[in-house]
Amino acid sequence: MPTGTVPVIRIVKSLFSLLFVAVSHAWAAAPDLEFHPPLVAGDATMPAIMRDLAERLLPVYQEADPDRYLANLSALQMVAGDYAAAHVSRQTLLERRRSADSGRPVGRAVIFDMYARARAMEAESRISFDDAFTKAFREVVPHLADQDAYAVTGWLGTSPQVFREALQKSFDRLRAKDSIGASEAVDLIWEYLSFDAYGSFGPLVDSLVAEDDRQRYTEDNEILIKTSGGASIAAVMVRPRNASKPLPTLLEFTIYNSQNYAKECAAHGYVGVVAYTRGKRTSPPEVVPYEYDGDDAGAVINWIAGQPWSDGRVGMYGDGYSGFTPWAAATRVPSALKAIATSASSAPGIDVPMEGSIFQNSAYRWSLHVTNTQASLEDSYNDDALWRSFNQQWYRSGKRYRDMGRLYGHPDPIFIRWLNHPSYDRYWQKMVPYREQFAHINIPVLTMTGYFAASEPGALYYFTQHYRYNPHAKHTLVVGPYDDNAMQRGPLAVLRGYEIDSAALIDLRELRYQWFDHVLKGSAAPPLLTDRINYEVMGANEWRHAPSLEAMAGSSLKFYLDAGASGERHRLTRHKTSSAAFVRQKVNLADRTDSAWMPPTDLITKRLVAHNGIMFVSEPLTKPTEFNGLLSGRLDFTVNKKDMDLHITPYELLADGEYVRLFNPTYEFRASYAPDRVHRHLLKAGERQELTFRSERMTSRQLQAGSRLVIVLGINKRPDREINYGTGNDVSEESIADGKIPLKIQWYNNSYIEIPVRK
Prior knowledge:
The chain has 759 residues and is an alpha+beta fold. The protein is 35% helix and 24% strand. The chain has 21 helices and 29 strands. The strands form five sheets. Strands 17, 18, 19, 20, 21, 22, 23, 24, 25, 26, 27, 28 and 29 form a 13-stranded mixed β-sheet that branches. α19 links the parallel β11 and β12 (475-480). The longest helix is centred in the first third of the chain and has 35 residues, at 182-216.
């Protein structure tokens, strides 16, 4: 604590108790304040406008909670320009919280402690803000533990643009008013203070963090590891500088050059290594996704185990592509690999570059991105509008799917290679463990995924296959209302319009480190991980635990696809009607008037359109019903073609008329591969037949009493997917010329959907 601050804090603490005795209850009913926001966040008039607002709030601000009072008071004082008083307020708050916060990780409040201290020094000592903030930083951060320092420096590095955008939204929202409520004004003060603070110290952060890192870590960013075949693998390493003994290593093997977590691993007491797919950061820059990663990751693991700073144990982790590479390495069963923790795990041939055996345009886009070094292609990868336009161009052209690269002007031999393997054949099987190979994986595994993650089928494939071939596997699954980015940026409180349960808002990355600490350091297991499957029940706001997917439910409800209809809705009934009937469906595969259509991204909607599909709606549920697990069913139908691509999407229709997605993206699959992804079984055109299926996506949600279950059964025909015209030939060779005869289906009322429910 700075010299001379203690007496002042003691006086403030004495007055503080008297203040709260005298606080009236008038704050909640305080009159609105006149307020006219500036046009633009960053406007020259903004500091004066916000200072005026803070000065008018200060005399009337009241709050019954002492800690919240001091925090908000300090913000008002800083925006009003009284930095000395703000620093005293924050030091008083720090003293109050010292015992309560003892042993806890550092919080974001430390950012404003440093900022207030810097502004106070600037005002009192007549030094520049840059010098003052540097001094404040050095007073605090070097004395923190590695993990806390990593968190603080990460927060400090947040772009000021984030706060500018938030402030601008608030200004725009308030512009139509002439006044602002007192509580709302305090929130706005914090938004402005964050924008002002991060804009002030932002230019200093990189050099200060680098200075601190040099004292904490040893880094090597130019490692080259030779494989037995002579390939060079680039890697980076970060380890704690003051480690007294060799440490376990956490390894990520990735195809991306972007952000890595090597330093974060080191901050958690591990050696952090990030290695790159051959061709990344090395010459020649020839990158081939998936094919060599298993052998190359094994070479990196063996190299790590031989280093003097390694204790011989390696844990692999990753998200997306680097969620695939640990499984690729595990196929070779390297002795030093002791644990795997993945999220958003890709499974080549399962959920990429196709899903349900249907190829996706995003695979072509991604392949160009990771295999090319042309700047123009790198820049275009993130241009969603460009790719949406190209998808529509290909769709309208009616050309073969394998002509996509020529149409775009960049033929891609790797994408063509993938198209040449539409079945889950040996090309895909050798990339990750296959069947009996799972039986040899006896190390602990942690898999995380989400009901709204595109990668969920890949994660569930690894989990289910592991236990199928190794019943004694030590594999733990965590699944909740998350998307593919939840591990990197944390779960969102509101995800695409859907409000996530508070129980699900956990730190997934920290959970992963806690699990590694348990496996590699002997720490206690994280309390959340009490069984093989740990899942958050949406709507119930609680976590449950089960030893298997089947045990999540214990029962099921069967709903039949009834021919009875009311408008565009058909009935979804608990009992099959006695008389045979069917629903007709006709899809013109050559029609291109829908080229601009794409499925909505929101998870909640007031209006549901079954594009190229049929909607089936149940009667209202009589009691709350917990849907836990994998949707399944049997389709009884007649079709005039040898194949078709289907999609099935479940919704909860709330009593207020809102439709809630139960998982997302939709479950889609090619009918000819539904029984067996290895061998294609064509449909019998013109004959009545049955097709059983089990969704590769799971969910858990407590359906409300009075809600209805909605199932949309449809045909996949969209600009961003391969189109199956039903000839029975290689689908990538088919074109619009094969779609002259519309697809015609009769769905018989013997068809049903079965949902697993908790007893």
